[in-house]
Amino acid sequence: MSVRLDATDRKILAELQVDASQSLDEIAKKVGSSKTPVWNRIRKMREAGVIRQNTVLLDAEALGLEACFFVLIRTSEHEAEWQQRFLSTLRARPEVLEAHRLAGDIDYILKVRVANARAYDSFYQALISEVKIHNVTALLSMEELKATTVLPV
């Protein structure tokens, strides 16, 4: 369900995506409004679920997490119990940054961030010990060409 946003809402969201630590005064100045209306708009967008959370972005490589793998998963299991166990397993693994259920030949794709190939193998071994999987293919990202959390508002 989409929420109706006007041009000012979109400008506020764009500013928050660039730097959510900006003061209300800074945001208001940049979007051509004043502090109280900006605060009210942000509050309404939080209540509507447009703004889910405030967070910080960390540099994975600076933290020693130098390997990014895209993991393609095919399964022959499609029962609700298996899906719930799989989802619980993914949620419990901090290495899994993203997980998507797909249409097509591949059932799921995971984005996994680890220190190195040995750490990926430990993740892989833990995954297959917890959940029955038909086929797993891991693709190592050689270079990140673009990564953003900024949505086109």
Looking at this protein, list some descriptive labels:
four-stranded antiparallel beta sheet, Alpha-Beta Plaits, alpha+beta, 153 residues, Arc Repressor Mutant, subunit A
Write the layout of secondary structure elements.
Elements: H1 7-18, H2 24-31, H3 35-47, E1 67-74, H4 80-92, E2 96-101, E3 108-114, H5 117-130, E4 135-140
Antiparallel strand pairs: 1-3, 1-4, 2-3
Helix pairs in contact: 1-2, 2-3
Domain HTH asnC-type: 5-66
Protein name: ArsR family transcriptional regulator
GO molecular function, one term: sequence-specific DNA binding
Radius of gyration: 20 Å
Main sheet characteristics: 4 strands, antiparallel
What is the number of strand segments? 4
What is the percent of helical residues? 25-40%
Shape-level CATH architecture of the largest domain = 2-Layer Sandwich
Strand proportion: 15-25%
For this structure, what is the CATH homologous superfamily of the largest domain?
Lrp/AsnC effector binding domain/regulation of amino acid metabolism (RAM) domain
At CATH level 3, the topology of the largest domain is Alpha-Beta Plaits
Number of helices: 5
Our measurement of the CA-to-CA distance between the termini, rounded to an integer number of angstroms, reads: 16 Å
Q: Estimate the global geometry from the Cα principal axes.
A: elongated
Number of domains: 2
Order of helices and strands: HHHEHEEHE
